[in-house]
From TrEMBL:
The keyword Hydrolase applies. It comes from Chryseobacterium piperi. This is S1/P1 Nuclease. InterPro entries: PLipase_C/P1_nuclease_dom_sf (IPR008947), S1/P1nuclease (IPR003154). The keyword Magnesium does not apply.
Amino acid sequence: MKSICSKILILAFIASSLYSYAWGLTGHRIIAEIAENHLSGKARREIRKIMGQERLAYWANWPDFIKSDTTGVWKQASAWHYVNIEPQADFKTFERNLKAQAGPSLYSQVKTLSAQVKDKNTLEKDRKIALIFLIHIMGDLAQPLHVGRADDLGGNKINVTYFGDKTNLHSVWDGKLVDSQKYSYTEYSALLDIKTKDEVKQIQYGTLEDWLYDSHKIANRIYAQTPDGSKLSYDYQYKFNDTLERQLLYGGLRLAKLLNDLF
């Protein structure tokens, strides 16, 4: 397993510039680093038994790296990174339509992977892969356009310019907004992770469905304020910087809550 992972990672790093990843490398590592800071002692020990001594941030982008694999082994996992849903009138409608969806998605896989990690009868290698994917897709959950709309592929078909460069709305939110801040992932996580214990508890409150609805509402606001053909620059960064940093922080704290509950 280690040999296979190593080969895939090498291929991934070579080809990584060709792909658009959710939150980009920095964003996923920020979320993982914040989560690491809020693990319970028991969760930390159990995760080390499964994952080894590397921090969560080390594995945070692996499920995107394996998109570079050409063998088709991981093809089925592509749908695990998002859940498409049209704008919903309220939470009850959102929850009902979310649960009615068929096929694998970010929503279904958080539950499936959580069950695999929790079950100590799961094979060691499968438990590790399930945990790695959980670290990643819980980060995806916090990227609003991963709870976006099917017709535009979560903003991938909405063409915009960002400081004059042609791109799309999804790419802006995946990495460009984060990377424009020019922080390393450790610097950014330290700057964001300053909430009190009571504030952390409030952010972590709720169900998986609540958290998805939270991102969905933000996605709707992004869509409304970024039509096709938008020219984005400093004003867009200013408008959405608080939202960006909220989602990175909330993603990390909610990932920690999920992992603590599992162990």
